[in-house]
Amino acid sequence: MTVVPRVLNDAICRAAPRSDLVPARMNPIFSRNCGRMSFWTCVFSCLAISTLLAAGSAGPLVILQQKYLELRTKFVSELESIAVVCEQEQLVSLATEVRRLKSPHEVLGDIDKLSSRVQPGIPANLPQPENAARIRLRKLQSDYAMNLYSLSRKALKEQHASLAFQLISEVLIHNPDHPQARGLLGYKRVGDEWMTPFAIQKKSKKEVWHDDFGWIESKHVPRYENGERYYNGNWITAQREETIRSDFKNAWKVETEHFLVRTNHSQQKGVRLAVAVEAFHRYFMREFAGFFRTPQQLDKLFTSGTSSNDGSHYEIYYFRKRQEFVDKLANKCPLADKINGLYMPQDRKAYFFHNPDISEDESLETLYHEVTHQLLSESTLKTTAIGNEHDFWVIEGIACYFESFRVAEDGTVSVGDLTHPRIRAAREQVVKKQEQEPLARFTALGMLKFQAGTTPELQKRYAQATGLAHFFLHYQDGVYRDEFIEYLTNIYTPVQRLRGTKTLEEIIGVSYATLDAQYATYFKEMPVTGTTKVSR
Question: Residues 281, 365: one domain?
Answer without folding.
Answer: yes
